Amino acid sequence: MVLMLLAAQTLSAQKLLPPEALSKLIPNKIGGYHEDGDMRGSQKAIGDIRYTVCERRFSKGKQKVKILLFDYKEAQIMFNQAMKNAQNNKGLETDSLVSRNIAAINYTGWETYSRKAASSQIFLGIADRFFLMLSAENIDLTSLQSILSGFNFENFSQGTDR
Predict the structure, then answer these.
(1) 72 pLDDT exceeds 50?
(2) In the chain, pLDDT over 90 holds for what percent of residues?
(3) Which run of H or E residues covers position 155?
(4) N or C: which end of the chain has fewer CB within 10 A?
(5) How many angstroms separate the CA atoms of 84 and 72, rounded?
């Protein structure tokens, strides 16, 4: 309990991460894929609300993966709005569509897969601050989940290097 309180205090004392620091939370490599272009990142401001976003893309033939990571440290309302889909998701599994909530110690969110569109997505809220979107074309949900295993979620609660 004391450790959890200390971790929460450390995280809440941290400032909004600049793009360079946020990008370190995204894997540099995905096995078998090559990076499409450079990592892109920026800080955005809408009135008093500020956030950081980073994007990295990978591909292997027709398979494409886009990773977007947001630091909503100073934009809690945007984090809450992004996570609203997880709260409202009732879950659906048919022959052609999957949509279900997922959770682990370090994150909560939802995943979707459309067989017809050959697309899969994973959306995660991490440490009540970060929002991660993995979008894939021509990749099934199981393969996208294996890409997710390349993230070190313990580092998110620290907000530091991998």
Answers:
(1) yes
(2) 60
(3) helix 154-158
(4) N
(5) 15
